[in-house]
Specification:
The chain is α/β, with parallel strands linked by helices and 609 residues long. 36% of the residues lie in helices and 23% in strands. The chain folds into 3 domains: 3-244, Glutamine Phosphoribosylpyrophosphate, subunit 1, domain 1 (4-Layer Sandwich), CATH 3.60.20.10; 253-426, 3-Layer(aba) Sandwich (Rossmann fold), CATH 3.40.50; 449-591, Glucose-6-phosphate isomerase like protein, domain 1 (Rossmann fold, 3-Layer(aba) Sandwich), CATH 3.40.50. The structure holds 5-amino-5-deoxy-1-O-phosphono-D-mannitol. 5-amino-5-deoxy-1-O-phosphono-D-mannitol is lined by residues 301-304, 348-350, 353, 356, 399-401, 489, 605-606.
Length: 609
């Protein structure tokens, strides 16, 4: 989950690398560095901390070379420090490497290289790669890299330059994302498209087991065995400004406000013009194949898993197929019962989450058909799944996922309805009613965003508390779990989400005067029971913000603050009720003076297990 950039051309590499790293900082940001071929040798500048630290060092002693590699790090092996930062070099400083991923056999390789006289300075797994390549180098960097990667076990995306060949930049991909940007007289590498977008919109997406050799005048793609690969360039038509803050103080706030658009885009052409049916051309399974599904497993991590909890509810209620939802890091290891009649749905904003990818592979290995719900076209998950439902949320930069989560919900609603109309488990009128309600959601979110000030005031009151609780039943409980994660993630306030009916079995002991509780009561059929649970906490002095359907008279009487959400079908309420919880987390984080978009210890894309 680190970020890699590389440049070869005629401009000052240092500036292009730093600019690219800024676009990738969300991938990891505990240290950064660059290596540039400068005045006949490889110069390496690294700094612990945010990119600004590195920029300061480079301003003080600029490098004028025109080929280089850069890296922004999220520590795995060894603490964040200057010495553990990338790029890494060998003892002679002949070879320099940036790496994203984990080398599983690095200890054995390190011991072997030490015996051969190499001296190591860092605690990282990456340093073995620079030494290994140097050890195998006989005047041809491409061959040396090919020989070295044969010895590596694990996940890696690599950028490599050699002092003796300053006209070549070598890139390798194995289970960690890497793209090549193709320019005019200059070429680029990046672990993500935004890193190269200011310079080119023509890219190659490397696949696992592939490498690229970049010179100033061209790019060649090879297999690791050296066979030439011919591939069409992919032209990116995103607008770069969509990846910038667009006038908001933080990416997270911008992304919360982008949700109406993300809902509309994700529904896009997937609903027939007459509003009666869902069309899912991207799902290649035939109606007969869909009818063979006996069980569904939904597998994902973090927020995407919480979307899966809603998805479980949607598919079970509408299509009447039993669904299990699992966090991906547990799924593989619990010996899940998978057969050809199992449909596995993996959900991942980035499409690069290692645990989710591993679950996908295990499911396919056992014969299941896998559908991916992902936000990144061309991501690993998208490429490996049998079918892909893309969420059109656009790039999500803030570490805390907001618009990706709600777009995942929309994807589940659409797929759930599609399955339902195919299996004919509900009346067509019901499907039409749900589609009408779905289409109303974007405007309803806009209305909801108008209550931001009430949420902000509540957030400021609770910002100094150490603990708080989210409670709800059914779908409200699923949303409560997402609200709790969001709050913890960016405000660092400890919180727990509880099924309201469970409180009396233990948690109620924690409720005392002034403890904040966020109570969701949006489900009509569960309202009375939820209200009783809310009274259990108010009776013990809790300070409660309730979330109720518009027009509510009851809940408002029992709580301290109330946020109302526009009326919709019970099944669709998560797409609305989560919005105030996102705002709550945002304003609480702001009130505590935290870095909202880059919370401590976290990274946007988690590509290690
Ligand atoms: O890219 P993914 O959707 O696979 O990421 C999964 C989780 O790492 C992610 O949702 C994480 O929990 C978010 N930071 C939560 O806001």
């Amino acid at each position: 989950m680190c970020g890699i950039v590389g440049y070869i051309g005629s401009s000052k590499a240092q500036d292009i690398l730093v600019e690219g790293l800024k676009k990738l900082e969300y991938r990891g940001y505990d240290s950064a560095g660059v290596a540039v071929y400068n005045g006949g040798r490889l110069e390496v500048v690294k700094a612990k901390g945010r990119l600004a630290e590195l920029e300061g060092k480079l301003e003080a002693a600029p490098l004028s070379g025109t080929i280089g590699i850069g890296h922004t790090r999220w520590a795995t092996h060894g603490k964040p420090s200057d010495v553990n930062s990338h790029p890494h070099v060998d003892n002679e400083r002949k070879i320099s490497v940036v790496h994203n991923g984990i080398i599983e056999n690095y200890i054995a390789l390190k011991e072997e290289l030490i015996e051969r006289g190499h001296r190591f300075v860092s605690e990282t797994d990456t340093e073995v790669i620079s030494h290994l390549i140097a050890d195998l180098y006989e005047g041809d960097i491409v061959r040396a890299v090919q020989a070295a990667v044969k010895r590596l076990r694990g996940a890696y995306a690599l950028g490599v330059i050699a002092e003796e060949e300053p006209d070549k930049l070598v890139a390798v991909r194995n289970a960690s994302p890497l793209i090549i940007g193709v320019g005019d007289g200059e070429n680029f590498i990046g672990s993500d498209i935004p890193a190269v977008l200011p310079h080119t919109r023509d890219i190659y997406i490397l696949k696992d087991g592939e490498m690229a050799v970049l010179t100033r005048n061209g790019v060649e793609l090879f297999t690791l065995e050296g066979n030439i690969i011919s591939r069409e360039l992919f032209h990116v038509d995103w607008d770069l400004t969509t990846a910038e803050k667009g006038g908001y103080d933080h990416f997270m706030l911008k992304e919360i406000h982008e949700q109406p658009k993300a809902y509309r885009d994700t529904m896009g052409s997937r609903i027939t013009e007459d509003g009666k049916r869902v069309v899912m051309n991207e799902v290649k399974m035939t109606a007969d194949e869909l009818r063979t599904i006996r069980h569904v497993h939904i597998v994902a991590c973090g927020t995407a898993y919480h979307a899966g909890l809603v998805g479980k509810n949607v598919i079970e209620r509408l299509a009447r197929i039993p669904v299990e939802a699992d966090v991906a890091s547990e799924y593989r290891y619990r010996a899940p019962i998978i057969s050809k009649e199992t449909l596995v749905i993996v959900v991942s904003q980035s499409g690069e989450t290692a645990d989710t990818l591993a679950a996908l592979r295990e499911a396919q290995r056992q014969g299941a058909r896998v559908i991916a719900i992902t936000n990144v076209v061309g991501s690993s998950v998208a490429r490996e799944a049998d079918d892909v439902i893309t969420t059109w949320a656009g790039p999500e930069i803030a570490v805390a996922s907001t618009k990706a989560y709600t777009s995942q919900l929309i994807a589940f609603y659409l797929f759930g309805l599609y399955l339902t109309q195919t299996l004919e488990t509900q009346e067509p009128a019901m499907i039409e009613e749900a589609i009408t309600a779905l289409r109303a959601l974007p405007e309803q979110v806009e209305t909801l965003l108008g209550q931001a000030d009430t949420v902000k005031a509540f957030a400021e009151k609770i910002a100094n508390h150490d603990d708080l609780f989210f409670i709800g039943r059914g779908l409200d409980y699923a949303v409560a779990q997402e609200g709790s994660l969001k709050l913890k993630e960016i405000s660092y306030i400890h919180s727990e989400a509880y099924a309201s009916g469970e409180l009396k079995h233990g948690t109620l002991a924690l409720i005392e005067d002034g403890v904040p509780v966020i109570a969701l009561a949006t489900q009509q059929e569960l309202f009375e029971k939820t209200l009783s649970n809310i009274k259990e906490v108010t009776a013990r002095g809790a300070y409660v913000m309730g979330i109720a359907p518009e027009g509510d008279q009851e809940l408002a009487k029992s709580v301290d603050e109330v946020i109302t959400i526009p009326r919709t079908l019970g099944l669709l309420t998560p797409a609305l009720s989560v919005v105030p919880l996102q705002l709550l987390a945002y304003y609480a984080s702001l009130a505590r003076g935290n870095d909202v978009d880059k919370p401590r210890n976290l990274a946007k894309s988690v590509t290690v297990e």
